[in-house]
Each structure stands twice: as C-alpha cells, then as structure tokens.
Specification:
This is LD-carboxypeptidase. This protein is an alpha/beta fold and 163 residues long. The chain has 7 helices and 5 strands.
Amino acid sequence: MKARIVAPSSALGELKNLQAGLELLGSWGIQLELPQIANRRWGYLAGSDGQRLADFDATADLWACARGGWGAARLLELGWQPPEGLLLGFSDVTSLLWAHQASGRLGALHGPLVTTLAAEPTWSQERLRLLLQGAAVPPLLGRGWGGGKGEGPLLVANLTVAT
C-alpha cells in the first residue's frame, strides 16, 4: 500500500509527532510519500490554498492527513475532487471526508491523523492497521447510552464543521 501524507489544514507544529506517526505507518509495511509539508506555513495554514490543493495531485492508495485544525474546507471552494483511494483524518478534515462520501466513493475514514496516530491506544492502532491491510476488523463491544435500535447511514464528523 502506498500512502501520501497530505496537510490540508493547519500548519504542523512540533515534528516529533509527525515522525512518530510516519514510523508507525512504515512499520506496517506502508510505503510513504511525503511532499514538502513539514515546514510549510501560510499564516496558520500548512501552505497556501493552492499548495495544499496541489498535495492531492498524485496517486495513492491512502491519503493520510497529517494534522487537522482549520482550513480543509477552503479546498472545496477551489474545486477539490476526492482522490481515488482511502482518505484518513478527523477534525476539520470532516469537510473533505463528507465530500469524499458524497461523491459516491468508498473509503472516507474518520480516524487518526498522522500526528496523533502514535499516541492512540494500542487497540485503536491495531484496528486501523487491520483495516488498512484488508483484514477483518473485530466489532467494537460496548453498551449504548440509550435503549432501542436505529438504522440508517452513519456519518461521523467534527460537529463544529458539520454545523
């Protein structure tokens, strides 16, 4: 699997969290492609809108967002098109995940950012690894807060972005 690390949102801060996430992904046998995002900054963003949009001008099996924050929705105004493959992230990346899902493509994954991946609990890392490797992922067990049953599409999101 080839993963391209993209930074559609806020600028990266300390790079040790990015490095830890990259090392973990690499240990899973994922081939990593990292455009020049580490020290790129345009105000509070990880580059100009054009630079951040251009990060998606490639091919990959997995598009792993380095960081959330703010700014991803601005790419939609520039005509961002959901890439082929899986798109992984959370926070303001919700806007891109929803656009990806609305396009009819499968693979919008509301999950860890590269900068948060190494700090995830082991069970969470393992579930992501299994998913990315195409293995069966055991169901989550637990008790709901309320009774009853529900049916329908599940849209996971950052509620600030969703409203």
